[in-house]
Design goal:
Rossmann fold; alpha/beta; binds magnesium ion; about 20% strand; binds zinc ion; about 260 residues; 13 helices; eight-stranded mixed sheet
C-alpha cells in the first residue's frame, strides 16, 4: 500500500492536472461584461465600476448592481454577443488537452449566458463552466445570481475561483490560464499559472509559479512541458485534498 503510493508520487502522470481557463480577456479578447454594460446599462454603471476599481466594493456587489442597470431587449443582447471573437487557437488548445487526457474547465467571474453563447458559436462545446448566472426578468431587464460565491473569498468575487476549482480538481494539480484580478485568489493557490497582463504582473510580484502566456498559441507550446514547468510539482502529490467527496457543481455546456 505504502509502496504503491510512493511510486505514484514519483511519476505523476501528465493527466494529473486540471486546466482552468478564465474567459473575459483570456478566451475572449475583450471583457464581455464591460461590453454589455457600455452598450446597454444606464450611465450610473461607471460610478459603480469606479468604486470597484478603488477597492471599495467587491466584484460581486459591483456586477449585481451593474446588471440591475442593464436595459437591453434579448435580441439586442444576443446581437452584441454574436460579434465577440475568441482566441483563434482556443479550440485547438482544448482538443490538445483532451488528447493528453487533461480536463479543461472554464471558471469565470463573468456571465454564464454570454460565455455559453459565444463558445457555442465558435464550436467549443461540452466544456464544464462555473460562473455567475444571468436571470431574465422579462422585457429588457436582468438579474445576476452567484451560485459559486464564497463569503470568505478575499476578492469579494461573484465566482470564487479558488474554491470552485479546488472542489473540481479533487486532488489534481491546478493550471490556471488567465489575465486579470478575477484570477488573483486562485493564482495564489494554483500549482502553475499561464499569465498575461495584470495577472502576469501579480505573479511576478508575488513570486507565484508561472509562465508568461499572451495567448492560446503560447499555451499550446507550453503544454507538453507541464510537469517540468511546475516548481510546486515535487510536493503537490503530498498536499492533502480536503474534499473527500468532490461536489461537481460545474454545469456542462450543451449544444443549443
Ligand atoms: Mg479575465
Ligand atoms: Zn476566492
Amino acid at each position: 500500500m505504502a509502496d504503491s503510493k510512493m511510486s505514484f508520487a514519483r511519476s505523476a502522470p501528465a493527466n494529473d492536472w486540471l486546466v482552468i481557463c478564465d474567459f473575459d480577456g483570456t478566451i475572449a479578447h475583450v471583457d464581455v461584461t464591460d461590453g454589455v454594460l457600455s452598450r446597454f446599462a444606464l450611465p450610473q454603471w461607471e460610478a459603480i465600476e469606479a468604486d470597484w476599481k478603488a477597492g471599495q466594493i467587491g466584484s460581486r456587489e459591483c456586477m449585481a448592481r451593474q446588471v440591475d442597470l442593464v436595459r437591453a431587449p434579448r435580441e439586442a443582447l444576443d446581437a452584441y454577443l454574436d460579434t465577440v471573437e475568441i482566441d483563434p487557437d482556443f479550440p485547438a488548445f482544448v482538443a490538445d488537452c483532451r488528447a493528453r487526457g487533461l480536463e479543461v474547465v472554464v471558471i469565470s467571474d463573468g456571465i454564464d449566458y454570454s460565455i455559453k453563447r459565444i463558445l457555442q458559436r465558435h464550436g467549443v462545446e461540452d466544456l464544464p463552466l462555473a460562473s455567475n448566472r444571468l436571470e431574465f426578468l422579462g422585457g429588457d431587464r436582468y438579474r445576476l445570481e452567484f451560485p459559486e460565491a464564497n463569503a470568505k473569498c478575499s476578492a469579494g468575487s461573484g465566482t470564487c475561483k479558488c474554491r470552485v476549482s479546488s472542489r473540481r480538481a479533487s486532488g489534481r494539480s491546478r493550471l490556471l490560464i488567465g489575465d486579470g484580478s478575477s484570477d488573483f485568489c486562485l493564482a495564489a493557490e494554483a500549482d502553475l499559472v499561464f499569465a498575461k497582463d495584470k495577472l502576469l504582473t501579480r505573479c511576478i510580484e508575488q513570486r507565484l509559479p508561472h509562465r508568461a502566456c499572451p495567448d492560446f498559441a503560447s499555451a499550446l507550446r507550453l503544454l507538453p512541458q507541464l510537469d517540468r514547468l511546475s516548481s510546486r510539482g515535487s510536493d503537490r502529490v503530498a498536499r492533502p485534498n480536503p474534499h473527500h467527496s468532490p461536489v461537481i457543481s460545474l454545469e456542462t455546456l450543451v449544444n443549443g
